[in-house]
Automatic annotation (TrEMBL):
This is Uncharacterized protein. PANTHER family: UBIQUITIN-ASSOCIATED AND SH3 DOMAIN-CONTAINING BA-RELATED (PTHR16469). It holds the Pfam family His_Phos_1. One of its GO terms (molecular function) is phosphatase activity. Signal peptide: none annotated.
Length: 187
């Protein structure tokens, strides 16, 4: 459960979009962010392109996510009319294919008309946003070990689609609000 305020500035737009992986842990985090930004109307777009690398699942298994209707009936503020960038994952995926999948989606939303976009996904998506590509499965596993859960990264995109770090709007996820505020002062 997230406590308010999680944003370090009150200047969020009245409406912003949260894109999240269909993994339930990501939907739950996105819903917490939406609730914590109570002055804004935030909607969650569940995006399969942000899901984990398919090779991390047991061989022969498929991803079984809750549907948008199921999530809505459970009280999650999911945007029901959202058309995903990707509707079906491949059965097999190389590390390079996974990088292309995440990059393609992040490139798509970089052209969004929204002034603020929040992406809730796994550590690999964070690395793509930071322009840190990988080429091997071993590198993917190292990323998963190196980045803690609920890590955040805030970036901007210039007119040439170059990504750059920006001053964070959202406080880091910590056990208490005081810890988050102290962590922001250290940066």
């Amino acid at each position: 459960m997230l406590e308010t305020p999680i944003f370090s500035t009150p200047s969020l737009p009245a409406h912003f979009c949260i894109y999240c992986s269909p993994e339930l842990r990501c939907v739950q985090t996105a819903a917490g962010i939406a609730r914590a930004a109570s002055d804004s109307h935030a909607s969650i777009c569940v995006e399969p392109a942000l899901s984990d690398w398919v090779q991390l699942s047991p061989e022969g298994s498929s991803k079984n996510w809750l549907t948008t209707n199921q999530l809505t009936s459970m009280g999650y503020p999911v945007q029901e009319g959202y058309k995903p960038h990707l509707t079906q994952l491949p059965k097999n995926e190389s590390p390079e294919d996974y990088l292309r999948r995440l990059s393609s989606f992040l490139t798509k939303i970089s052209g969004s008309s929204e002034s603020v976009v929040v992406v809730v996904a796994n550590a690999h998506a964070l690395e793509v946003a930071r322009n840190r590509p990988w080429t091997t499965a071993e590198q993917l596993c190292q990323i998963k070990k190196a980045i803690r859960n609920c890590a955040t990264c805030e970036v901007g995109v210039d007119s040439d689609n170059k990504v750059y770090a920006v001053e964070p709007l959202m406080l880091p996820f910590t056990k208490t609000l005081k810890d988050a505020q102290e962590k922001m002062m250290v940066k």
